[in-house]
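User: Sequence in, structure out. Go.
Assistant: Echoing your sequence, followed by the structure tokens.
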Amino acid sequence: MDIFDSCHIINDHLISTREGQARNELIRLLDYHERNDIEYSPLVNHLIRETGLYPYLKPDTADWGDRFVYEIFKVDIGGKESTLHREQSSLLKRLINGENVAVSAPTSFGKSFVIDAFISIKNPNNVVIIVPTIALTDETRRRLYKKFANNYKIITTTEVELAEKNIFIFPQERAMNYVNKIDSIDILIIDEFYKASSVYDKSRSPALLKAILKLGIKSKQKYFLAPNITSIGENVFTKDMVFEDKLGFNTVYLERFDKYTEIKGDKIEKELQKGEILLNILEQTKTKSLIYAASYPQIDKVSNLLNEMLPISEKPLLIEFSNWLTINYGANWKLTNLVKRGVGIHNGQLHRSISQIQVKLFEEKDGLANIISTSSIIEGVNTSAENVIIWRNRKSGGNSILDSFTYKNIIGRGGRMFKYFIGKIYLLESPPQDDATQLDIPFPDSILGDLDEEIHISSLNNEQVAKIVSFKTEMYDILGKEVYDRLLKENIFQSNNSDFVKETARQMKDNQEDWNGLSYLNSNEPESWDRLIWKIISLQPGEWGDGPYGIQHKKFVEFVKVLVANWGSTIPELLDELDEFDIDIEQFFKLERIAAFNLSSLISDINILQREILNNGTDVSPFVSRVSHAFLPSVVYQLEEYGLPRMISRKLYQNGIIDFNNDNLNIHNTIEIFHEIGREKIKSFNFIDAFDEYILDYFYDGITISESESPL
């Protein structure tokens, strides 16, 4: 590559107002400089400035004008200053001026920097950040804790006492727990807000829309973030917001390799060729790769191929991780063998701490080289790689062809500012047609019954108001006006389907004798739970393990009864007990999640209704709490979200270090206990093994304030 000729081409693009092409050529030029260890000339620095990529400027070799730009675009992002690029700065200015902004930008744009800068500059009292997953909750918490924990209480779990200044970070379902606790919100931030559309998240979009409505009326300002949206259809949820399309501003360049054109023959031959091409890519690239496999069966197929063909790594960290998985999950789990070959799995079903540890290892030089994934990797975490390999051109689940929007989100994981200037995209199946994506957000009728028509009148049309009034009239008939108005005000129901709540209440009132014996759920005798759990889950058929690891209702009931021993038994011991019901480790992960969320939410709503309708003094809140934490001590369950697996918590408990059964413990005073004991002291205990130490370092990093963090 001739540097001067490249600069000439870039300049020609700029003169002809083809800034996007100029930026792409410039990024390729910067990659050439990095690979060949070439110092930036003043000319290269000036072209960086002209394309708006100010963070890439090298002040030591830039002329005074470009150095000046580098300095004036610096902002405090929480304890340290960083230079924003032109479009980040433009976006931040709108927010500082108090505007409500919905922004669509590439994955590599750096939208989170804008949040951090806003908090640092504006010093708000209450910030609410809604993210789609627990994994993204913890990733965001870790970033903000390091910067702002001296000045803010960082809240990610339910039932936490508020401080004077708070940053709330959680999925939409948890947000509802704080609707009545927060008087005023300075800024409401919705990350990945495209999930408000039922097109992209049919089951959870109603909960997000309900959170936007109920928290939005308390918010002084709103900031919604999404990738790859070209326009937003008219809707009540973003009606007072400015839409900013920043999709044209990329900070990395994506280079595409259409490997699918080399694949010929019948179905069997094509699969064999795909496997050979994948192995060749992994052998030739030698850098980090994300392999998008779309579905669980395809993950199994790729896993089997790599398990068979890749050599066992000699990296100590991976050997230790494999041994740790063998002890804590079992030698026969495919991940145990895969990690020895430098390969991880991210499918949205594993224990949260295991997924987090794998992402951490993926970012280590001597850690995992490859991760096989469903779309969970684009929804759950902000990780990137130099290489993204599309093994299968289907959406997660494996049935529908990838649409342009999802495809762009996946390949957007290729490249990263300051790490990989160029992301390399390898397509083993054909890509979708490049289409614009308009985000349409219809108002779902299912949430109407959970709204007060007087409070939300500005967001409702006449037909919706009429439906709410009709719904309330029916609920008054069942529960009485005073009771239903109180429950509505408390935002107490977990379900996002108002009709389901109504029909369950009606059935309970008409057949009260069928609900006798609910108090047995509070007992420590799981054998007495069968009829009740069976009856409860029958209210919502299809919620209990449908899909790739589907399960019969009877098996789910048996699973819950075994899960009671979750704290006292190891996972291999639980799996031995579940073997007679043909429940393997993959089903264990899925069913534990279903029990902790779906089952606990359903029983919580039933408990609310039965207290009002049956009025017999029964309250199964203790059971709801136990199942919502997968029958682990609540703090142990929450610590897993912070990256500390239950196995290490169990060791600390069994050796008398921390009494996790203490009812006075909450996540915040437990973190204080960990600080009082200290990282090195815990790592020195003889029951802590080598990989436990690695995990503890990761955990402590997430609860430690950066030394550079200074008071606002």
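User: And one key feature?
Assistant: The two ends are 47 Å apart (CA to CA).
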